[in-house]
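User: Write out your own:

AI:
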Amino acid sequence: MRLLGSSRAWGSSGEGFGGHRSLRASAGVAGSMAACSSPIWRVAGRSWFTPLHQAAWHGAPASVVDELIDLGASRTLRTADGRTAHDIAAAAGHEALLPLLEPARRNPAAEDVLDELDRHLNDLVEQRIRPQLTTELRPFPTGMLTEHEPGTRAWFPVPGMYGGFSIALMRNYLDVESWSRVVGGSGQAHVITVAGTVLVDEGFV
């Protein structure tokens, strides 16, 4: 993933959909973009440990943790077994890191709402890319966006699609745009709520 305006993106290894955004997204979200480095993990790794999780595990100096967070490391992002960096540091007894790793939420969306949004978003991604693409993806965790102001957009590229998904978490729903830059008129806009997914626009890009 990347928050639009940064240099990296969330998804799988390999070439993503590119850095293209729809003209509508470019014009409409410039004020809500925030720079953020990517929460990446080891290619082909199954633990989903990011550098921040590793720092929590090893009890890295506070200055290292601070720098990772300043670069955009997510404190809400969970590993494959469901642990945040805070959880890992607490279990390892690195108490000095706990205040730094406490997630700072700026969006009040409830956990049960986020779980449903995650499920519907993953279904949408699968619907849009299969069966043309066989890439295995880690589902996009909308909980990461609670660390940013409502409406902040993240870019979710899919290798081989040459486009991707522009995702914004509002207070209790997702605003999602997706497209392939090599397929004219492929753009679609969806609103995702706990009740499901609704197509609200298409044919752009």
